[in-house]
Amino acid sequence: MLSGKMSDQYKEELKKRGFRLTSQREIIIRTLIENSGKHCSVNDLRELAQAEDPTIGIATIYRTVNLLSRLGLLNLVNMEEGFYRFELPGQKMHFHLYCRICGKVIHMEDETDKEATVKKWVEEEAFHFLPQTLEIAAVCDECHRNFPENNIAGPPCSGFGHGRMGGHGRGQGGRGRWR
Amino acid sequence: MLSGKMSDQYKEELKKRGFRLTSQREIIIRTLIENSGKHCSVNDLRELAQAEDPTIGIATIYRTVNLLSRLGLLNLVNMEEGFYRFELPGQKMHFHLYCRICGKVIHMEDETDKEATVKKWVEEEAFHFLPQTLEIAAVCDECHRNFPENNIAGPPCSGFGHGRMGGHGRGQGGRGRWR
DNA sequence: GTTCTTGCAAACCTTTTGCAAGCAC
DNA sequence: GTGCTTGCAAAAGGTTTGCAAGAAC
User: Fold this and answer.
1) B41, A124 Cβ separation under 8 angstroms
2) What pTM did the predictor assign?
3) Which one of A151, A162, A171 has the shortest CB-CB distance to B173?
4) Interface check A116 vs B, CB under 8 A
5) Distance A163 CA to D1 C1' (A)
6) What is the reported pLDDT for A4?
7) Where are the domains of chain A?
8) Is the pLDDT of residue B65 over 80?
């Protein structure tokens, strides 16, 4: 089946770069591929992977996802939930539009046209295009109508709107600041 | 000066919705406005605000930023660093293009044209447009040339590429999952 | 046999929260 | 005076890491 092919591709990529093929990595990759429509989080991945091998540890999930990410084999999707979700690159782009006030998310129309536009933008900068999910913030009509009259946040406020921010372990690398 | 006007606007917005004007909130708002080109993080904000009033606590920064965010007065920018940065809405959009492999970030050209395109997309969905920074992932030419031959990540890999993921306190609300 | 990987548990770090004191109105 | 806000310190919770045991090659 399709996912067999896909996962072979991933495994070859790993091998080619000198990484070992462990059963854990196989399971995680397969899980990622079989659930590629779902934007799995680390926790989703853990549950799915542990259904196949309950001994897989969370650290292995993180390390594998990190590895695939660094190899360019996995995209991060930020839903402003306080953690990332994943998607395989090399598929169609998706466009999410979410309301800054109430948090509602919709899938935008005409993704193919929009993808072509983004691709053009990227290539104009001499970068190589990578299909991904783009999240655009806006205000839905309902919230816009109710807006300045209503007190939309009963104090004490928290949660950065609907999203949350991120903590993480010891930093290193990173993409530099500003500019 | 300009920032005086801006901050009056913010203060009025707070008052109008029944929130109190404290000296801490004033400082944080002023700092945000005076550094609006810089995409400050909570830590940047803390340093800047504490230069004016060393007793301001980090919790107040978070609570204020949360409040402004819920009121639609502040946008979150995710640089995949493991925490958010902030920007004031109501300004020009910015477009960042970053390399998925090496993490390099560039500012894209023709932001005005691109902004018009995004505005059109948003309004086609009957949402109200909000200027913001959009981050687009891609692969830079250099990394693309070096790509499959090089082992770009010496094991053990970590850091989700160059970015990091997020942890957070107790959740609540949220934007739902998938779909 | 050597070197990379894993699992566990502890460490990290950002963000949130409980609570008593303080301040805005 | 009432009740929102603040600061502190502790808790929360996602992610990373040190290390010894195990697996891939």
Assistant:
1) no
2) 0.78
3) A162
4) no
5) 37
6) 66
7) 2-73, 90-179
8) yes
Question: What's the length of chain B?
Answer: 179
Cβ-in-10-Å burial (0-12, 13-18, 19+) of A5 comes to exposed
Q: Which CATH number fits domain A2-73: 1.10.10.10, 2.60.40.1180, 3.30.300.20, 3.90.1300.10?
A: 1.10.10.10
* Structure token pair of residue A32: 């990622």
Residue of B nearest to A106 (CA): B179
B window 86-145: Cβ near strand C (< 7 A): none
Report pLDDT digits (tens) over A117-158: 999 999 999 998 888 889 898 888 887 776 543 333 333 333
Give pLDDT, residue B3.
57
Residue B10 C-alpha, separation from nearest chain A C-alpha, in angstroms? 12
CA closest to D6 C1', residue: B60
Contact status of B159 with chain A (Cβ, < 8 Å): yes
For residue B125, give both structure tokens.
Answer: 């969905």
Architecture of B90-179 per CATH? Answer: 2-Layer Sandwich (3.30)
Query: What are the pLDDT digits (tens) for B120-160?
Result: 999 999 998 888 889 888 888 887 776 543 333 333 333 45
> Stretch A36-65: mean pLDDT, rounded?
95
The single residue listed with the structure tokens 């560039």 is B106
pLDDT band at B82 (very low <50, low <70, confident <90, very high): confident
Q: How many Å from the CA of B123 to C1' of C25?
A: 41
Locus of tokens 């493991």: B82
- A–B interface: beta-carbon pairs under 8 A: 265
Distance CA A145, CA A135 (A): 23
Cα B152–Cα A14–Cα B106 angle in degrees, nearest 5: 35
Which residue stretches of chain A are H helix?
2-16, 23-34, 42-52, 58-70, 111-124, 141-146
A153 Cβ within 7 A of any nucleic strand C atom: no
* Residue whose CA lies closest to nucleotide C24 C1': B20
